[in-house]
Every structure is written in structure tokens, then in C-alpha cells.
Amino acid sequence: QVQLQQSGPGLVKPSQTLSLTCAISGDSVSSNSAAWNWIRQSPSRGLEWLGRTYYRSKWYNDYAVSVKSRISINPDTSKNQFSLQLNSVTPEDTAVYYCARSRTDLDLWGPGTMVTVSS
Amino acid sequence: QPVLTQSSSASASLGSSVRLTCTLSSGHSSYIILWHQQQPGKAPRYLMKVDGSGRYNKGSGVPDRFSGSSSGADRYLTISNLQSEDEADYYCETWDSNTFWVFGGGTKLTVL
Prior knowledge:
The structure holds two protein chains of two kinds.
Chain A: E1 3-7, E2 11-12, E3 18-25, E4 35-42, E5 46-55, E6 59-63, E7 71-76, E8 81-86, E9 95-102, E10 106-109, E11 113-117
Parallel strand pairs in A: 2-11
Antiparallel strand pairs in A: 1-3, 3-8, 4-5, 4-9, 5-6, 7-8, 9-10, 9-11
Chain B: E1 4-6, E2 9-12, E3 18-24, E4 33-38, E5 45-50, E6 56-58, E7 66-71, E8 74-79, E9 88-96, E10 100-103, E11 107-111
Parallel strand pairs in B: 2-11
Antiparallel strand pairs in B: 1-3, 3-8, 4-5, 4-9, 5-6, 7-8, 9-10, 9-11
């Protein structure tokens, strides 16, 4: 059974970097048939896809235009996990952050991490 | 880019059926959509995908009470024999090569 487990701080100060990790069990971050995504959810913005990383003989990334200048998603093959870094955060980045797997469908979600941006 | 429109709320009685609608924007009526369920305080859960022909393919463990269908730009999620645990937010989603994963605003289902 594939599971995703998230970790990372729940409070980040404005202008600093939000960092979260998603550990994968039962699948591989290097899978040739999966992509590994970050999605966030807030009352004001609803569900918003942020980006993904995936391996197809080499590593690729795609990012949402809204965060493209501030985001980085990286795989860690040694730990079978992937991470999210979002730079220069503001209170508008306050949200529940989810990692998720997609194959042909976005078919598996992590439990979510509530991140508050506040001084 | 595709836009998905959902009613903000719906309600139905315990044991009855309800059909939720997700409408694709003009020019995107052939798109496949996914349905996700988000129970209060939980992460979303993948339910199924529905294509423009009305074919649907459910995720693992999704009860038989859940089914999908379509008509034109509308994609439907029907829940029969409503149970209390079906009270949740339901989101549709689609994929586009330019915008990647796009979500609807969600429908809050109340089971009376």
C-alpha cells in the first residue's frame, strides 16, 4: 500500500523560506510512471497545484506560473522522498500543503501540513 | 486554459441519491475530469475519473454507491443510498498541458 508522509514546520516568518518534505513508502520517487506533486489549499484560493518533479530517464520539474519565481521541488533518491521550498513567503502563502502522486490521474494524497506565515 | 465550475453547496436526505455537477469551460468540453472527496478535517481522496463519453473508472476501495457520467461539457458524480460519511466537500479536477492540474471550487454536500 502506497503512503505519503509529510514533515516540516507549521510556522514560517514572512520573507523566509517554507520547506516541507514528503516521504514515499510503497512506490519510488524515481518511478518512470509517476510524478510527485505539491498542492496547497486555502479558503481564499481553494486548491492550487504548485508543481511537480518526475523521472523519465532524467529529472524534470514543472511549476505553476503563480509561484514559478519562488519555488523549487527536488527529489531525494537516497531517502525516497521529495521536498518543497517556497521562498520569500508572505501571509498569502498560509495554507494547508499537500504532497500527492500522479500517474495518469492524481490518485494519492498526503495527509497535509498546515503552514502559517506570521511573525 | 480550462475552468471548472461547481455549485457551492448541495444537500440530500440519508438513503437518497444526489448528483453533483462539474462544468468544463468553453473549448474544453472533451476533457477528462477527476472527482475527489474531502471529508471534514481530512486530506482529499481520489474517487474516479470521468471522460466525455460518460465512462468512469473508480479508484481503489471506492464504494459501488459512487458512479460517474457526462453530458456535453458537464461531468457528474452520483452518490446513491447516501450515508452520513458522504457528507464532505467534492472537488473536480482536470489536466491541461499548459496549466497542469486545475481544480474546481468544490461542492459542499450536506446529508440531511
